[in-house]
Batch of 2 targets.
Target 1
Amino acid sequence: MELEFCQSCSMPLHDSAIHGCEADSSPNPHYCKYCYQNGAFTSGMTMKEMIDFCTLMMVQANPGMAAQQARERMHQFFPLLLRWKK
Ligand SMILES: [Zn+2]
């Protein structure tokens, strides 16, 4: 099975409990519960705002990680995600 990532914030969706849900509470296959709940995105962030937010989270979770490096990686990866793909 292919490893799934949230198509909004790139968090790994390794556990069904982490999936977001539709308005009828069925799980959404593409997004995590932090990004998507009850059939809608939880915030109207732009891709840039999402990258800023995720950089902050990642640096907090991984002390010693260079913020600039994390940000550059996300700038390459995020445009491929379903939510940000044009
Ligand atoms: Zn997410």
Target 2
Amino acid sequence: MGGMRTVVRAARPEDAPALGLLMVESWLAAHREQIPDTAWQARAAEWTPEASAHGWAALIADIAATDVPADVLLVAEDDSGAVVGLVHGVVRGVGDGPPAGEISSLYVAHDQHRRGVGTSLLKAAAQALRDLDAVGLRLSVLTANLPARAFYEARGGQQVGPGTTDEDGHLLPTTLYAWSDGSLLGGD
Ligand SMILES: CC(C)(COP(=O)(O)OP(=O)(O)OC[C@H]1O[C@@H](n2cnc3c(N)ncnc32)[C@H](O)[C@@H]1OP(=O)(O)O)[C@@H](O)C(=O)NCCC(=O)NCCS
């Protein structure tokens, strides 16, 4: 764990600028080799930390204004209080059945990988989604994102099928992972 203590907590309005920076920097770094270059270049040219921060600020305000929110936004901070990771979870309605917990974003600062931050965020999001009555946990990841897939598999995620995602007009293959209720929280 590198001797570093990580605290996971709910995002606050003042986190928005740091979340925008973290999201844009780590997204561009993580997916550079995983998506077509034209799609990557389009993101790099058009997507700013300020625009991303604006979206996070709106989400944080929305969560604060809702009695039973459908979103969970948590941050990891290091001992100095710097934001080093984020996770966005959603309670997703599924037909007539109970709502499912879904991870829509999980990003850890590049220089903080492999220190357990991602695991702490994933587990905290699973717990927070369960507290909102979501059943089970699932997510979709680019099939080309081998490091993230290794991470989800190390955390016990089961491959439940293929999917696709549209990135700037490119239909990219995704892999769906799922955890049954409690299987993530019960683990190490
Ligand atoms: C995927 C990600 C969230 C993992 O976070 P992390 O803090 O590095 O993960 P942890 O330290 O908790 O890793 C736990 C275990 O997962 C596995 N794992 C994590 N990263 C891995 C990698 N790059 N390659 C292989 N296995 C990996 C290992 O088993 C690891 O345990 P170990 O370090 O003791 O071997 C992080 O790498 C990240 O932010 N990547 C870029 C963004 C991204 O792709 N996000 C997911 C798509 S939305």
